[in-house]
Design goal:
The chain is an alpha/beta fold. Helices cover 41% and strands 16% of the residues.
């Protein structure tokens, strides 16, 4: 096994809505990039051109880049009142395609090759607490057909722009597990559809993250890094945790990811102990991730030495 390379970043609003402070903290931690989700208390698609120019100047000042526009595309988006045949006529679909147009502008402005999408909002389950199951609550064929159609249209819009649509798994979505994302990948069947893999999100949905990884390996363009623990097994209540202190089993994930071409590992802290500082929580989360990576490298070197 060759030694993987790592680049680290953070979603800025996990540190602060003040974009300049978030970038300063990220740079001080030695990160190479950030991802934009909310900036100055605005979702990314609501930022005006002047704010985009300011954000780009702040990135440049701190020697940072962004490779992923973390917009809220196809989320929230219920499919309960959407028919497959008339999906493109639905006002909600038009609203999200307008968002996509804005995300394309942002991607070119920042030089980011990836735009995030979600797998549409579950109409049953998906909240916290809600039942956890290995298939994340399932996804029937009629729903999958609607999801695939929306994803295909978005991918076809991005292809001539040279951009990738990156599908992230989250508990509240139909595409909430590695298994369900694989079904969407196969049904949409587009070369510029890839995966943002979040093991903790798969875990809170009920999937074994190691099994979920096997479903999406080879398609991952970014890894979101956080952890979670089950609080009440009967209700499915979970809580976010510091990496290494939850059920995502990051030691196993890092071993599995070591042979993948992806090298961007993005802190999405979420873990917020009472009375704590969000920047410090991110720092501590980052330290936990790096410690696990250092241990993996140490173990790999020992294994190589013993086999020589």
């Amino acid at each position: 096994m060759t030694q993987p390379t790592y680049e680290f970043g953070v979603i800025t609003d996990e540190i602060d809505q003040d974009f300049a402070r978030a970038c300063r903290v990220a740079a001080d931690l030695g990160m190479r990039y950030v991802e934009l989700h909310e900036v100055w208390n605005k979702p990314t698609h609501e930022l005006n051109d002047a704010e985009l120019r300011e954000a780009k100047a702040i990135l440049d000042d701190h020697g940072l880049r962004t490779h992923l526009i973390c917009g809220m595309f196809f989320r929230p988006f219920s499919l309960s009142d959407v028919d497959l045949a008339s999906m493109t006529d639905h006002p909600r679909f038009h609203e999200h395609m307008d968002r996509l147009t804005r995300f394309i502008h942002m991607a070119h402005h920042f030089g980011a090759p990836n735009i995030r999408t979600f797998g549409f909002t579950r109409d049953v389950g998906g909240t916290n607490p809600s039942p956890r199951s290995a298939d994340g609550g399932g996804m029937d064929e009629a729903t999958l057909a609607k999801i695939a159609q929306g994803i295909r249209i978005a991918c076809d819009r991005l292809l001539p722009e040279g951009l990738t649509l990156a599908l992230e798994n989250a508990r509240s979505l139909y595409a909430n597990t590695g298994g369900n994302m694989r079904r969407v990948l196969d049904a949409a069947d587009r070369p510029n559809l890839k995966i943002i893999w979040d093991p903790a999100n798969a875990f809170v949905a009920g999937e074994d993250p190691a099994q979920g990884f096997e479903q999406v390996r080879g398609a991952i363009v970014d890894v979101h890094c956080k952890d979670a623990a089950v609080q009440e097994p009967t209700t499915g209540l979970t809580a976010w945790a510091r990496i290494g202190e939850g059920g995502a089993d990051w030691a196993t994930q890092l071993r599995l990811l070591a042979n993948e071409p992806v090298n961007t590992y993005t802190i999405e802290t979420h873990w917020r102990p009472a009375g704590s500082d969000r920047a410090d929580n991110t720092r501590r989360t980052f330290e936990s991730l790096k410690a696990l990576i250092d241990q993996q490298i140490h173990n790999a070197q020992n294994t190589k030495a013993h086999s020589a």
